[in-house]
Batch of 2 targets.
Target 1
Amino acid sequence: MKRFIIAFIAAYVFIFVWGWLLNGVVFKDIYAQTPNLWRSQSEMMSLFHWIIIGQALIVFAFVMIYASGFAGGGVIAGIQLGILLEIAAIGMRMGFYAVQPFPGKLIVYGSVGGLIEMIIVGAIVGAIYKPASARTQ
Amino acid sequence: MRGAHEEVPALFRTKPDFPWLILGHIVMAFFFTMLCIRFVPAGGVFATATLGILVGLVYAGPHLISFAVEPLTTKILGGWIVGAVIQFAIAGGIVGAIYKPSSPASSRH
């Protein structure tokens, strides 16, 4: 349980910082091109807790999947899980692109950023979380 | 969800771009199936449906984040989250029911 919590916190801290770097800094100009699709800055800040809960849910479910089916495989298994989940998520992004008027480059850059993010999250979780049987050996 | 989406027309295209919609679902289904096979090599409806619920929760996270940054309604948010969890739970159940390993899997790793 302790390893689960440490893996969760480490992955969460990374995803929070990475999310801010991508969406708050790197993609800022792309978002500015489509202001009608986004809430105002003050509105976003008032709903910021949803971002925190959303990121926590992503990391929690990721660590749960890793702990129940991939644990023991270490960093490589974590990275594999991250890649599989993210490529499926790219499919979901394509679906959103089909129904919402997002700029194409936001989908492309977001997918590349998401893939890097999930590879690193997988590596972090795989490096930290060890099943009880592996730790006693 | 159509009615809920029509409440915020500025956020949606007037007509879906079907090739992207279909391709996106194919990519999602293919890699979700790969994940099921990697996660539960022996197959089984319950195990893959459980994985589907967890995957649905992974994708519910971005919906919550979207709600914070896009002017979506709570009705849309709720529908997307419940829809994602149910969609992947059923997809997992389908994969678990159909997929049978060619030789008995001795280990999950």
Note: Chain A has one domain: 2-132.
Target 2
Amino acid sequence: MTRWPISLAVIALAVALLAAGSSIVVSGQLLAYQDGYVFFTTGDGFRVASNVVIRDAKTGAATSLVPGPRIWARATFDPSGTVTELDLSRAPLPPEGSFADVAHFAVALSTPVPNPDLLRALQTPVPGSGVPAVQQFSGEPVLVTFIVQVPPNTPFTSSVYITTDASAWYAQAIPMDRVDALHYQITRRYPSGTVFRYLYDRGSFQSVEVAQNGLTRPPRNLTVGNADVRVIRDTVYAWQDAAAGGVSQPQPQIMPTPYNPAPFPNLPPGIPPPQPPPAKPPS
Amino acid sequence: MPSPAPPSTAAPQSTATPASTATPQSTPPPPKSVLYLTAARIDFYYDSFLLEADGNVRLRTSDGFTVSGDSFSMDLKNNRYLLAGHVTLHDATGTVKGAAISDFLDFRRIYFVPVTGEPDRWTFLDGDLAHPVKGRVMPDDAFYFPVIVQRPSLTAGGAVIDTRTYVRFVNSHTYVAGLPIPLGTDVVNFSSNPYFAQNSLSGASADLTWTVAGSPNALTALHLRYDPTYYLYGSIEQHLVGDHEYAIFSVNPATRAEKWWNLKLYEALGSRFQIQSFTQYYAQQDWLRLPASAQQTTWLNAVYAFPHSYVQATSQLTNYNVLGPGALELPNSIAGNLSHPSQVAISASSFQNRIADLPLFEQIFEGYGFNHDSVGAAQYLNGMPPYWPQGGRAFAPIPIPGLQAYGAPCTEQPSKYYTYYCPVYTTIWDTVFGFTFFTPALKLNAAPSPYETYYFNASFTKQYQWNSLPHWIGTDTTSFSISRQFARWVNTYLGYQIMNTGDYYIQGGYQPCAPVGTTYCPESLTSFRGVSTLRTTSLGMNFVPDPDFNASLLVRHHDDFPIPVPGVFSMPPNNILGQPLYSWYLGQPPYDATGDVRARILPHMLLDVSRTFYWYGNPYRTEFWQPNFVIQLLPI
């Protein structure tokens, strides 16, 4: 008598296992949901069963969310590749399954054709051809340390900053720390693949760096590659407001003092102006 | 399709090219496009330059097509956009419906997922919408939405996007503490052209900028600013920018009686020559009424680059009283003096050259200058206050001409209250020559770890200035420092600097200090003859436990001649933020310590707070704090 329920349980388990093995579950972000298809941000479109079940991904209950762009979904495919269930969420869902397993379910009228643009990116350039290899970026954070050597005439109390096009060229975007008489340093964290242009300055564009030849210099370019740590060493040859031997550019809101070739502007009134030696008494 | 790459993350300051973005090599840069975007809601994220739109999105492009759909996403720095959900693409050749379209503007590739009965994949090459390439494999991330966790910087109902340059938002709102503030039209400039950042404003503790108008070559901004000098005020600035030139005009503060009108011009002519100018006009006036006081200065600079050196000519013309002599008349004169000095200098400077194979570099410079002022300035009248004698006593404008009064008191004194000195030079020619030697960072030991390595730096600069009056000035500055980074998060340096300044007169020169009124003459001032020596020992420490937090401490000891005595020397003027205007000066307190703390308080904002403490030690034991904290909010 006891064999009958055991057999029933084994059969039920086998059916369940078969059923489980025949469905594929993949999670991802939706691109569109229209015309009987669901599209993921991979660009793949899949047929949707007419009686597709739509649920909340977290609770499994019915949801007011509507499938559409930006919505995250866990899709269940039947053996024929039709989506039978969509569990929706506004927040990203943990990765589940692989789109490689359902790629053959994707519907496309045209036969795939290789993309020469992408093939070119995968090819290793011939050595000496001058063609640069295409860089691939992981997006992982990279600690980037900037070390800059400043001109010896940089005032000791000066602050040095990095200005970048990523912060709309705000002159004090990245304050640096003096590490010795000639060097400043700062470490920042950027995702690999970050690209920006930058210049060094002393707090404003009146005191931005100039090129070694005295002209306004074009910004430096930085592309953060895949690495744990990167050190960038630069040299500032001169500041715009500290040209050697020249007349300094006036600062905003500071009217220049009249020319006076006397280097001590704050002598106490007890010291009279320089004057010739007293005349010798007639002999 | 290949397996998907992880979605690109909108990271601060990131213009990250998403993973495995394999795009065609760009040949000539594509023409810039203008996109006209409307939607139920448009969000902009300043820290990542992302533009997101949802609900009834309509996009019209200058390339000649329109697209509508449910959701839009554009990475302004990567210059690509995505429109998804019930997409309708319409151009002169017809209308196609689809699920999504992605335009890589820089590469002139449009990736489209049409739904013509069944989905397909089309690629439009080089703007040719009439001949799609069907079935071509697309980049993995062509249709990825960025993951955004922060709140938008502003929202709008419409936007005009000039690719690679600016976005003009319509009916926009920004948010302060979660509360919407209507801005109407607001322009965000994200051009990589740094000329847009050239400005003629002074520093401020905080600056809220509202860019009310913009174009590929212009930007108009209103500023709400705060600083310890003028407190809260408004300013206006106009930028006109080209590829090789710019013009910047500003009024700052515009809402205070003390107004500074600024004009900055720049032009690069070829690859070796540039010319620039800065004109500043100061007026004390209520709104735009007749000024009670007005001054003006214009600075002109031209640079010509040679292969290993450069020459520059600089001129400065200043008029300390634009209003004329009448403005000096009592009893309400605040117009300053009638001086209008002019300066012209031509200087040549070499590049930094390495000496043989030594770890030693040199740079030399020389220059010639012409300085002229037929009127003269109040500062050469010993004891003369900066403006006008107080008390309403009638007095003519200063009659003494010249740039520098050198000599004994004049035989005829025009005033019984002040002492005038003779002779007076109205023109001074000068010659400047100088050189610098310096070593870059030299390793002092062969430590196994970079955190145990000591580095040594040194520099020596000498400059002579010979003037046409019997007078020359020599300055030399010698610096040494030893530094070590103890760990990734802490580094220190010990520096020593000697600055000698000699103000020499061929005949005579400085006289011993003589007490004037209550002025005290300490011993070192009595022996002072125009030569000073400033010796500074510095100990600096930086703590950077995290890239988002930084603390630094700088402690200095000055061993100077003349010896500083409290109350004898005047402190230098401060800049608008309350920091000393000069990096060195006679009478600086023998000890000072400056602490500075920076922390990221918002995803795109740093707070920087610093303050200095000064003390004299024995025998005076006087101590005081810098008058105020220097607080700055720094957008990053």
Note: Chain A touches chain B through 133 residues (CB under 8 Å).
